[in-house]
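I am still getting used to backbone structure tokens and would like to learn alongside you. Please make up or recall a protein chain and show it to me in full. Would you write everything just below, so we can both look at the same thing?
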Amino acid sequence: MIETPRLLLRGWREADVEPWQAMCSDPEVMRHLGPPMTMDEAQAYVARMQKMQTDHGHCFWALEHRSTSTFLGFCGVKPGAAGTPIVDRVEIGWRMARPWWGAGYAREAAQASIDWVWANLDAQSIWAITTHDNRRSRGLMTRLGMARRDDLDFEHQALAENDPLRPHVTYEIERPA
């Protein structure tokens, strides 16, 4: 569990499935991520994150507001996915429900995740990927001090060839000296 002044990054609970699925049914939240999630897909996602936490000691953690215990989304780190240029590297990611956009929560949670990696893992860098057109996430990557790695941009193999979300960009931040 990671605490920041306003947030709690924690393991996933069964109670998170419903707000997670509701968040992932918002077309604006999913704009750069794909189709809305069904309840079965949301349950499977939570189960994958729980297993990842058990297997690796970290995952894309559930994100909760400390003072209200409201589920906000996720932020954390996991092994990069197969079929991407960051396979098995430390990947940082975030996704938040729309009412919480623009309040600095994603940056606060992402910085806490980066700090956690430097304190707890032997990784020399942290990586992030997103769709080419996801300007909000790319902006956060830049504000976090991540650098674009044009040489590692790719077409996401998990998406159909004609899918407009297929072009992806890659960012990296190196461990401070």
